[in-house]
User: Fold Mitochondrial thiamine pyrophosphate carrier 1 from Discina gigas.
Amino acid sequence: MSEAISLRDGHGGAVTSTATEPIPQRPVTVGTRKKHDKQSMEYILRIGIAGGFAGCAAKTLIAPLDRVKILFQASSPQFAKYSGSWLGAANAMRDISHTEGVTGLFRGHSATLLRIFPYAAIKFVAYEQIRAVLIRTNEQETPLRRLLSGSLAGVTSVFFTYPLEVIRVRLAFETRASHHSTLRSICAQLYREPTRSAAPLEGLSNFYRGFSPTVLGMLPYAGISFLTHDMAGDFMRSPLVASWTTTQGVDEMGRHGGRRPTLKAWAELVSGGFAGMVAQTASYPLEVVRRRMQVSGAVGSGRGVGIRETAVEIWRRAGVRGYFVGLSIGYVKVVPMVA
Assistant:
């Protein structure tokens, strides 16, 4: 580019000369977004902390419903009368507030918070790590691999946090207004309760009551939850509805190096809620069996019971409906928990 330079000679006359001088060009950058290394410690910590805080917030929001659902599933004698009606949950919460106060609605929530942060964090981290191993290319993005990734992530998180789950359920199952157990007293009680077999460290095995149906339920719940969420997300990003469901009206995949378009908030909510409802329905009978096993030491003879014995007892008392008691509460709480 030419640039005119004015100089003056010795007689005061103006001399104009033209100099050609390149002007440095600023590099033009195309809008790209940094790709995260899902194997890096920074990414693991960020997604783990985010998942933990999200789980704590969601559990606090639905804590009253969670306690009522536990009482229904475990067939609490005091609250069994409410489980068969549409307004049963509301009536049960009113009963709890009247006898135990508002804080009674959050009975066992302290154990919930102790459990949910490591549970949610471990699940999110495990899912990303397992998915990165099993699904390395787009060709490997199959429903079976998605299902396996979700199931293994769920089992991993449950294994490390299950004792806190049992403690939480036992605290929530207590309905005596005159006496409330503490975390310490519940732990001591669980350790002293008789077991089904004389196994090594038999007292510690009580903290894993109901673990077997939990693991069996992880396949339909965690697996189907992640699978359905991914499939619903794929549909929401399809050209048929993408103009309404994604944040951009243009094809972001071409602009951002293959990154999937971002869903709008309502579309993400619908995808997560739908995935949660499908997974909840598929795994709910095993959840009811698990709850009965977890509280078995607090009722009857105080001895733990097995899966078959518990399932037969539920069938004998209530038939098929007994395996789905409290499911409507699960539908109400599943949206903030999963979406």
Summary: The longest strand covers residues 2-8. Residues 143-173 form the longest helix (31 residues).
